[in-house]
């Protein structure tokens, strides 16, 4: 049921990459979507599992945390130098692929005999099960190696959900999801949510002023307002 709810949010015709942890709903959502959706793994989740397993074996935990940390160092270097997707992919091929090979080799040597019932064994089993998805970032430089941006975006919901157990009705829950999505999209686009909602609500309620829905998403609305401001300045200058 959760996967059924994901598809309308990302759009039934969505095509691209869906980055997340090993949640089975991600696979189901990818299958339900009409577009071509590829699931990609999140190295931050793997890193967290090995860190949490430290009490069960500090030395082995630190070994894997250190190796996985090297993947994040590669991404940090790419960000620091402002590499585009193509350059980032080349950097990953040169530096990240050998790290992945070391992670797998060291893991098979150190964790192969561990039982899955223990914390370290579970962390290793999780990584093995996600291995194909975790390696997707080597296919395209635009694929992030983690979904931390999503995790941070939903953190306010996770923190406050005990206060939001009831939305009044299914329609109320859907409306709340739409508003949270719009506000989060405004933040990503660098748009003031209050100014955005105030303007868009007027546009869609004014006969003849409404734009297509695609033009009113926060990122495009920002471009629209900039273009309108430019026209207004030109008109003022002519006057």
Main structural class: mainly alpha
The percentage helix is 55-70%
Total strand segments: 2
Shape: globular
Strand order of the largest sheet: 1-2
Distance between the termini: 59 Å
How large is the radius of gyration?
22 Å
Estimate the strand proportion. Answer: under 5%
Number of helices: 11
Give the integer mean of the pLDDT values: 83
The residue ranges in which pLDDT falls below 50 over 5 or more consecutive positions are 1-9
The helix-strand sequence is HEHEHHHHHHHHH
| Major sheet | 2 strands, parallel
Any overview of this molecule?
With 239 residues, the protein is mainly alpha-helical. The protein is 67% helix and 3% strand. It has 11 helices and 2 strands. The chain has helices spanning 2-10, 24-32, 43-52, 58-80, 85-111, 119-129, 131-134, 148-160, 170-189, 193-205, 218-238; strands at residues 16-19, 37-40. Helix 2 (24-32) links the parallel strand 1 and strand 2 (37-40). Helix 1 (2-10) crosses helix 2 and helix 3 runs antiparallel to helix 4 (58-80). The radius of gyration is 22 Å and the shape is globular. The chain starts with a helix and ends with a helix.
């Amino acid at each position: 049921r959760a996967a059924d709810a994901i598809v309308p949010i990302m759009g039934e015709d969505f095509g691209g990459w869906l980055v997340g942890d090993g949640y089975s709903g991600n696979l189901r959502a990818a299958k339900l979507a009409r577009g071509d959706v590829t699931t990609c793994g999140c190295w931050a989740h793997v890193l967290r599992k090995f860190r949490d397993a430290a009490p069960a074996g500090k030395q082995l935990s630190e070994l894997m945390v250190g190796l996985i940390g090297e993947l994040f160092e590669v991404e940090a270097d790419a960000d620091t130098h402002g590499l585009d997707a193509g350059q980032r992919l080349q950097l990953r091929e040169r530096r990240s692929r050998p790290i992945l090979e070391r992670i797998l080799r060291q893991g098979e040597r150190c964790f192969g005999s561990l039982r899955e019932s223990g914390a370290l064994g579970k962390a290793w089993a999780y990584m093995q099960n996600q291995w194909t998805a975790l390696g997707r970032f080597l296919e395209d430089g635009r694929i992030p190696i983690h979904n931390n941006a999503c995790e941070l975006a939903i953190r306010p919901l996770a923190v406050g959900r005990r206060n939001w157990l009831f939305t009044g009705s299914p329609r109320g829950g859907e409306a709340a999801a739409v508003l949270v999505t719009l506000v989060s999209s405004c933040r990503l686009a660098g748009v003031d949510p209050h100014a955005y909602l105030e303007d868009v609500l007027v546009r869609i309620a004014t006969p003849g002023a409404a734009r297509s829905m695609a033009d009113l998403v926060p990122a495009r609305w920002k471009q629209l307002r900039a273009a309108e401001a430019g026209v207004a300045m030109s008109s003022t200058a002519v006057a």
